[in-house]
Amino acid sequence: MSAARRRRRAARLVPAAAASWAAAALAVCVPQAAVWAAPALWAVAVVGCALLWQHPTPVRAVIAVAVVGAAVGVSHVALAQPGRASVDDLAAGGGRSLVVEATISGKLDPNSAGDIWFDALADRIAAGDRAVTGGVLPLRIGVSADAVASLGRADIGSEVTVRGTSIPVRAGDRAVLVVRAQEVIVRAERPHAVLAAASDLRRGLVESAGALPGPGAALVPGLAVGETRAVSPSLDESMKASSLSHLTAVSGANCALVVGVAYGASALVGARRGARIAAGLVTLGGFIMLVTPEPSVVRAGAMAAIAMFALALGRAGAGLSVLCIAVVLLLAVDPWLAVSLGFALSTVATASLLVLARPLAAGLCRWMPRPLALALSIPLAAQLACGPLLVLVDPRVPVLGVAANLLAAPAAPVATLAGLAACLAAPFPWVQDGLTAIAWLPASWIAAIADVVGSLPGQQLPWWSELGGLAALSGVSVCVAVVVLAPPGTNRRMLRGVAVVVVCAVVGVSGGQTALRTVAGPWTVPGRWAVAACDVGQGDAVLLRSEGAVALIDTGPDPARLETCLARFGISRLDLLVLTHFDADHRGGVEAVRGRVDLVVHGPSGGGAADRLLDGLRRSGARTEIAHPGMQGILGGARWRVLWPSAAVAAGNDASVVLDVRGGGVPDTLLLGDLSAEAQQAMQRNEPLGEFDVVKVAHHGSADQDARLYAAASPTLALITVGADNDYGHPRESILSTLASVGATVARTDQEGIVAVWRGDDGALALWRERDVVGAR
Q1: CA-based nearest residue to 165, from 143, 182, 185
Q2: Which of 777, 704, 759 is nearest to 530 (CA)?
Q3: Rounded mean pLDDT of 504-521?
Q4: What's the pLDDT tens digit per position in 302-361?
Q5: 532: enclosing H helix or E strand
Q6: Residue 602 confidence (pLDDT) above 70
Q7: Model pTM?
Q8: How many Cα atoms sit within 13 Å of 91 on the Cβ side?
Q9: 3-state secondary structure (DSSP) of residue 130
Q10: How far apart are CA 50 and CA 44, in angstroms?
Q11: Which tens digits make up the pLDDT trace of 454-463?
Q12: How far apart are CA 23 and CA 593, in angstroms?
């Protein structure tokens, strides 16, 4: 049989996998429709199977597999819907106080703020006198840093009672509820039998590795058994920036490595194929129990098990068919995988290795030695296939990701196997420590690669976000594949030429923008700036800098415009983010700083979307504190103090956080949020204002202002953050006249773009405008 025909036969089940995936995705996103769709799909499935029985053909077989897989997955959603609807009704859309009795079903993951998150299966969820019981109710539970100690040595399999607040889930989430826990009571700390033993083994490996120096010690448990609790935020960021974070996640590659070792060892002792396969499956089951049988691990193990089944049938070469069968079965058992980015990445990565790796190696052999081409083809295939999906999470492309994976490739299997052996050697401490030290060497190599590659300037190429970014990078991936795969010859020359032009154009545009915004961007703004108003349209985003520490006051309405401003000033991390209030023009750009903030100070949230936003920031590693008058903090050498809001103001513009910032090279600055005249007057009654060098004018220069406040503040410079041609007529003539009467110079972002301020050598304020506009006030 020719190679082309074998490839076509292997790809026959791709439509079945795609149909099952689409049906499952629609069902979990619109679960009400699953109730009537399930019977219809089963009717079609019965007819299809009957036709297949009468006249078997490959096409009918594929259709039958697709319809049956879709019917099972949709039925799963339909059967689960009544219980999920009951929980949603109980939680009342979020913000409700709940008591949950649950069993921990996933590993405990800490974030950089010290909070711990884990998956659980609830036995009972209660709100007041109402309760939902029975069934398997998957939850996501977050325990704040203050309450983490109450978890003790709890691990997967432990039983807990949680008191907390419900957070609404999105359509398609596996969890029926997300709970932010204020109190945790561990009813049964030790999990049962096998799970308890596995927990002890993992904990022993962490303790053994903890005695070793450097970041490599923290990677050993992650490389061996997916235990990442010891990985620091900086190391985690370096692993992500260098495209190496997949090495510390238990994936199909880990499972295949473990199964391969068991299979090979059985072969060495002369075992028959059936015995070798049985040894591989038993070893795989033990490995899954050791690293925690959470959904992602079970998914990886299921793919490896189906591959073993194909081997038992003598069809080891039909990799793509095996993958398609695995996808259909996994989606039938867990249809919520259809909207899981992790599942999509796992599937696409595996498919790329099966379909692309060998042709890429053959194409690369035209330009480099065969061994290097073979080594390069695997990370290149994964990068081309997974890159477009990854920009949905992080709109940056790791330029040297393939090179980093190529350098790390020889070390990863050694670290994984040595670390796994060390984990199992826990009863013999001296043996365990020796094996851990062996694993530490390649783990340290991987950590060093991550640190060097992740810190290189320009390594993270900013990309377009969301679906536009996915489409653009998909186009680049296809064109790169065409350049490598197209064989030489006149007929292919034009195709390859077009592909090269497309790649160069897209990468050139993106690279040029990146250079302007990152490498060259900071050269285009004053190096001594202390206060800067970003041009983010009709919204607020003001930067403060003192002795290298940076604060951002509000995020504006658009993440892309805020990201442009941050890159222009060379800012990659924020020591402080202040969300004065939760109107869209002050918090809409928060995605640009998610995962890059240490402390968030905010005004009253009012519940709902604001609470979800704050919870998302906490999940990404930030600490959050609600502002109150008299609250103080340090930013480098500067001191900030909260003047407002009063406890009597619940939410909205008049609950805006007002900051007084002084010292540390920052001109005395007053930031007024969106305060109205009435609130401005109330604030002055509580605490009379002194004079300020800079005042950020309230509410984009609306007419609702108290002239006495600006007279008391007597600013040298008034910043107005406002969008060009806005519908509100901001800034109004009345406030411009007030500012003129107190002798303030006015700088406004609608006319002048970014505005930066600092104190010159002579002590006077220095002002820089991005655009010089004739007639600008």
Answers
A1: 182
A2: 759
A3: 58
A4: 766 665 565 555 554 466 777 888 888 888 888 988 888 878 887 887 788 777 888 888
A5: strand 531-533
A6: yes
A7: 0.65
A8: 25
A9: strand
A10: 10
A11: 777 667 777 7
A12: 35
Question: Token digits for 561?
Answer: 């415009």
CA distance 526 to 280: 63
CA distance 427 to 29: 48
d(CA 141, CA 118) in angstroms, rounded, equals 6
- Asked whether the bond before 731 is cis by omega within 30 degrees of 0, the reply is yes
Angle in degrees, 0-180, between the axes of helices 58-91 and 319-333, rounded to the nearest 10: 30
Please list, in sequence order, all residues whose beta carbon lies within 8 angstroms of the beta carbon of residue 362, skipping any fewer than 6 positions away. 373
Q: Which of 259, 205, 116, 251 is nearest to 443 (CA)?
A: 205
Q: Does residue 645 sit in helix, strand or coil?
A: coil
d(CA 701, CA 737): 11
- How far does the chain reach from its first CA to its final CA, in angstroms? 80
Pull the structure tokens for residue 528: 């001594």
Identify which of 611, 676, 680, 678 has the alpha carbon closest to the alpha carbon of residue 644: 680
What single string gives the DSSP state of each residue in 305-366?
Answer: HHHHHHHHTT-TT-HHHHHHHHHHHHHHH-GGGGG-HHHHHHHHHHHHHHHTHHHHHHHHTT
**Which value, to the nearest 10 degrees, does the dihedral of the CA atoms of residues 542, 545, 549, 555 take?**
10
The single residue listed with the structure tokens 């103090």 is: 641
Q: Which two tokens stand for residue 33?
A: 């429709």
Angstrom distance (rounded) from CA 163 to CA 179: 9
Secondary structure of residue 585 in the 3-state scheme = helix
E strand or H helix at 177: strand 177-188
Integer angstrom CA distances of residue 702 from 717, 732, 775: 17, 6, 21
Rg (alpha carbons) of the chain, rounded to whole number:
29
Residues 182 and 163 sit within 8 Å (Cβ to Cβ): yes
The pLDDT value recorded for residue 775 is 39
What does the block give as tokens for 60? 């009918």
- Write the burial class of residue 741 (CB in 10 Å: 0-12 exposed, 13-18 middle, 19+ buried): exposed
Residue 571 in 3-state DSSP? coil
∠ CA 649-655-658, nearest 5°, is 130
Residue 70: which residues within 8 A CB-CB, separation 6 or more? 19, 20, 22, 23, 24, 41
Question: 484: helix, coil or strand?
Answer: helix
* Number of residues written out for the chain: 777
Would you say 650 and 604 are in contact if contact means Cβ atoms under 8 Å apart?
A: yes
Q: CB neighbours of 22 closer than 8 A, spacing ≥ 6? A: 70, 338
* Spatial contact of 727 and 719, defined as CB atoms under 8 Å apart: no
Give the CA distances from residue 496 to residues 481, 488, 511, 763, in Å, rounded to whole numbers and listed in that order.
10, 9, 22, 61
CA atoms within 13 A on the CB side of 187: 11
Q: What are phi and psi of 437, to 5 degrees?
A: -65, -35
Element of type H or E holding 610: helix 609-619
Q: State the Cα–Cα distance between residues 40 and 253, nearest whole angstrom.
A: 38
Helix, strand, or coil (residue 157): coil
> How far apart, in whole angstroms, are the C-alpha atoms of residue 261 and residue 416?
12
- Residue type, position 408, single letter: A
CA distance 282 to 262: 9
Where do we find the tokens 């935020």?
Answer: 233
Contact (Cβ atoms closer than 8 angstroms) between residue 20 and residue 327: yes
